[in-house]
Design goal:
The structure is a single chain. A seven-stranded mixed β-sheet has the order 1-5-6-10-9-8-7, sandwiched between helices. A three-stranded antiparallel β-sheet has the order 2-4-3. α3 packs antiparallel against α4 and α5 packs across α11. It is elongated, with a radius of gyration of 38 Å. It is α+β, with helices and mostly antiparallel strands and 340 residues long. The protein binds phenylalanine. Phenylalanine binds next to β9 and β10.
Length: 340
């Protein structure tokens, strides 16, 4: 009898089907009222005493094997059934998620688009820079105190190599290789050795502009900036506050009159109505000399702004970290206007 039981176990283990009626036949054959298991159990009483234990164990194994198999066959056929149920060709398709542009990209593209209309083209450069392009050529010689204005990440083994702290380095590279007139925008990532907080980040984006030609004046700069703030924010009132940058002389901070219409206006302008949006100035003659452009023939202006800061104003989102956490729930709220 043991052998017979073992054969049935083998049969059960090698049996497979996904068909519902074959599954039912399996059940009847082994587990039905007149099935094999009942038949074997009824013969059990005739098994001689000493063999009872062994045969009983084998019978239980057979019973478990049959039940387990039946369960797994039923799962299979149920899944099969469900698949059939879902083949409903009248159902709408699964929606495809639309991606959206990152808010920093949207704002960058808007800024580029505004300056493109007045003849600026794009220029890019490496994020890992050397001291010359990031500092020295920009009128920041070694030990110049203004180097401390921009906390720098240096490559430990070679202090001549660093992560650029601004995209002014791109302007140096461009001027070294091109003759004026020059009218470029350089957007890109920049790095500063600062603790991450709601207001600052060790990496952020800048966009800087440079215009070099004969007879470029401070009035040209002011006019260009006013055009820019009008186009971007719809605000045309600006003021230029005297400031200091080593690479520009004179230098200024640009404030835009934001207004004091809403509570948020009060908050973001600290009750003054004015917002600082960028730095600018006339390119220092020393910088022109450093890149082989004659400062007696040419002059120019430069300006630079942080893209996240502009995004903060446009979207009223004050925590810079949100722009870098890349939480889709945050990112998908920004819609680029057509073409940006
Ligand atoms: N490079 C300056 C900065 O990162 C910004 C700037 C650019 C200022 C051009 C003046 C002119 O702070």
């Amino acid at each position: 009898m043991i052998e017979e039981i073992q054969q049935y176990i083998n049969e059960i283990e090698s049996f497979h089907t996904t068909d519902v009626s074959e599954t039912e036949s399996f059940r009847i054959k082994f587990l039905g009222k007149k099935g094999i298991l009942n038949e074997l159990f009824s013969r059990f009483k005739d098994v001689p005493g000493p063999e009872k234990k062994e045969v009983g164990l084998a019978l239980n194994l057979l019973k478990n094997a049959a039940n387990n198999k039946l369960n797994s066959l039923r799962e299979n056929t149920a899944a099969q059934d469900q698949k059939q149920e879902f083949t409903d060709f009248t159902q709408p398709g699964n929606p495809i998620e639309n991606g959206s542009r990152h808010p920093v990209s949207i704002v960058r593209n808007r800024i580029i688009e505004i300056f493109k209309r007045i003849g600026f083209t794009l220029s890019s450069g490496p994020e890992i820079e050397d001291d010359w392009h990031n500092f020295t050529a920009l009128n920041l010689p070694e030990y110049h105190p203004a180097r401390d204005m921009q906390d720098t990440f240096f490559i430990e083994k070679d202090p001549d190599i660093l992560l650029r702290t601004h995209t002014s380095s791109v302007q140096i590279r461009y001027m070294e290789n091109q003759k004026p007139p020059i009218r470029i925008l350089s957007p890109g990532r920049v790095y500063r050795n600062e603790a991450v907080s709601a207001r600052s980040h060790a990496m952020f984006h800048q966009i800087e502009g440079l215009y070099i030609d004969k007879d470029v004046s401070f009035a040209d700069l002011k006019q260009t900036l006013q055009y820019f703030t009008t186009e971007l924010f719809g605000k045309s009132q600006i003021r230029l506050r005297p400031s200091y940058f080593p690479f520009t002389e004179p230098s200024a901070e640009v404030d835009v009159y934001w207004g004091l219409e809403t509570e948020t206006d009060y908050k973001i302008t600290k009750g003054t109505g004015w917002l600082e949006i960028m730095g600018c100035g006339m390119v220092d003659p020393n910088v022109l000399q450093n890149v082989g452009i004659d400062p007696d023939t040419y002059s120019g202006y430069a300006f630079g702004m942080g893209i996240e800061r502009i995004a903060l104003l446009l979207y009223q989102i004050g925590d810079i970290r949100l722009y870098f956490e890349n939480d889709v729930r945050f990112l998908e709220q920004f819609q680029a206007e057509f073409g940006w």
